[in-house]
Amino acid sequence: MLQNQAEKEGTITRVALYCRVSTTEQGLEGHSLEAQEAVMYKHCIERGYTVQEVYVDAGISGKEMTKRHALQRLLHDAEEQQFDLVLVWKLSRMGRNLKDVLEIVERLGKQQIGFLSLSEQFDTSTPSGRFMFQQMASFNEYERNIIAENVKLTMTKLAQDGHWTGNQVLGYDNARSEDGKGTLTINEIEAAIIRLIFQQALEGKGYRSIANHMNQQGYRTKKGNTFSAVAIKDILRNPVYQGKIRYNRYENWANARRKGLSDDVFLVQGQHPAIISEADWKQVAALLDLQSKQPAWNRQGSNVLTGLLRCPQCGAPMAASNVTNTLKDGTKKRIRYYSCSQFRNKGARVCSANSIRADVAEKRVRERFAAYISQPRLLQQLSERLESQHSIYLENWQRQEEQVEAKQADLERQYEQITTILIETPELADDLSPRLRQIRQEQASLRAQLQQLDAKRKQHHTKPSLTSLEALFDLLHGVMKNQEKQALKAIYRLFIARIDWNKAENTLHVELNIDQATFQHLFVQEEEVRSIPERASSLRLLEKALPISVRI
C-alpha cells in the first residue's frame, strides 16, 4: 500500500478519488469507472474516510498528463489543500509514464498530501517502499510501451490491407466494413468540393488562389473552418482521394508534429472508392511538383523566358522589366528587357544588370527550339535513347526488388529460428518476443517497398514509341506556329532546363530536358477536345523519370 505516515496515525479524513480508463479498457471487467469507484468507496467506508471529490478521466490514455483534465483539476485542488489523501484503484490509473507518476507523487508530497494505491502494497514513507514504488511505476511505463507497440502493429497491418485508420477527412465519412474494420464512404456534398479544388489545380491555380476562391464561394472544411493555403495543399497532396492509403507518414506526432517525418512511409491501394481519377491526381501532383521548383514570378506573367534565362555573370535567373525611352522626336517607346534578378533584388554590389532585350532573346530561343524539333532524324534518335534509358531503369527496379526479396527471406529464416528456440525454451519469451515483433515490422516495411517498386514498373511498363513522339512533336510545332505566349511559356517550362547567355559572344545556349514522362502524360485525356494553346498551357509532367539533357 502506498501511504504516508499521517494515514498510519489515522489523521487523514478527506480523500480524493481518481479514476481513469482508456477507450480500449472500458469493456474490460474490473477496469470500468464504476468498478474502480465502488472499490475505493468501500475502502473509505471501512476506514471512516470522507470522500471529498471524485475525479474522472473517461476514455483517456495515461500517456500524457496535460490531456487529462480531471487530473489537472486534482493537482490544482491539491495546491488548495482541499483533501489529505489521493486514492487510486491501481498505480497505472495515475499514469503509465514513470516520470509523470513520480512527478505527481512529488507534487502531492510537497502539499503534505498522501498517495494510496489499493492494488499495490508499498509504503513510500520508507526507502524500500519508495524503491518498490519506482519499480512498479517503471513496469507500468514498460507495459504502456508494449501496448503502444502492439497497437501500432495492428494499425499498420490494417493500413497495409487498405483499411482506413485515420481521422475524418473532407469528402468522406468514416464507416465500418462488413468485417468491422475501418473504411470510408463518399460524402457527395463534400466530394463536390474536393472535385472543384482539383479542377482549379488542373487549371494552374496555386494554393492561395484556390483557398481564396473556396472561401469567397462560402465553402468550408470538415470542421467548418475557412480554407487556408496549407489546407488546400494537404488536400491536393493526399492520395486518399485517388483511392490509396498512405500510412506512417509521421513519427512521434504528439511531440514532433509535422517535423517528425518518417522514413518508412508506405502507399497501398485502399478499400474505399476514389473521388479523383488516378490520372487527374497524378497530373495535379506533377504540376505542383513543377511549380514548387520554380518561384512564382517564373510561373506567372507573359514573359516566356523568366526564370529560364540565366545571368552571364552570377548564374542567377533573369526576370523581365520594362524601360521607357524618349526618342529624339519626343515620343516614348516602351522596351522590355531581361536583367539579373540578383541585381534587381540586392543591387550593384552583388551583380550587374546584364540586360538583354526581351524580344531579341525570345526570338532567338524560339528559332533555336523550332530548328531543334524540326531535325529529320531527331525523333528516331530520341526514341532510341529513351528506349535505352527505359531498359536501364527497369533493370534497376528489378535489382532493387531482388534485394528486398532476399531481405524478406532472411527475416523469415530468423523468425522461424527464434520460434523454434521459444518452443524448446519458453522461459526466453520475455527476451525474444520483442525481436519477433521487430521482424514483423521490418517485413511489413519490405512488403510496402515491393508494392511501390511494382507500381513503378507497371507505370513505366510500356516502352516509348515513335508514334507517341510524333504526336508530341506535332503539338510542339503547332504551339511554335501559334506563338501564343502562355502556351509558349508552358512548353518552355516543360522542356527547357535553362538558357545560358554568353554576353561576350552574344550567344544563347538552350539546355533541354526531354523524357518519357513528358509525352507519356501529355495525352492522358485523349478524347477531350481542346485547342493547341489550351493543351499546351495544361501540360502535365508526372516526374523526371528518364531525363535526357540536350544542348542546342
The coarse overall form would be: elongated
Given the helix and strand composition, which structural class is it? alpha/beta
Query: What radius of gyration results from the CA coordinates?
Result: 33 Å
Terminal CA distance reads 85 Å
Short description:
The chain starts with a helix and ends with a strand.
Can you tell me about this structure?
- The chain is of the alpha/beta class and 552 residues long.
- Among the domains are: 5-152, Rossmann fold (3-Layer(aba) Sandwich), CATH 3.40.50.1390; 172-293, Putative Large Serine Recombinase, Chain B, Domain 2 (Hect, E3 ligase catalytic domain fold, Alpha-Beta Complex); 389-459.
- The protein contains 20 helices and 15 strands.
- The chain has helices at 5-8, 33-47, 69-79, 91-94, 98-110, 127-160, 188-202, 207-216, 229-236, 253-256, 278-292, 296-299, 341-346, 358-373, 378-424, 429-459, 466-482, 485-495, 516-520, 532-537, and strands at residues 14-21, 50-58, 85-88, 114-117, 172-176, 182-186, 244-247, 266-269, 309-310, 318-326, 332-340, 356-357, 496-502, 507-513, 549-551.
- The strands form five sheets. Strands 2-1-3-4 form a four-stranded parallel β-sheet, with helices on both faces. Strands 9-13-14-15 form a four-stranded mixed β-sheet.
- A hairpin with a 5-residue loop joins strand 5 (172-176) and strand 6.
- Helix 15 (378-424) runs antiparallel to helix 16 (429-459).
- The longest helix is centred in the last third of the chain and has 47 residues, at 378-424.
- The protein is elongated.
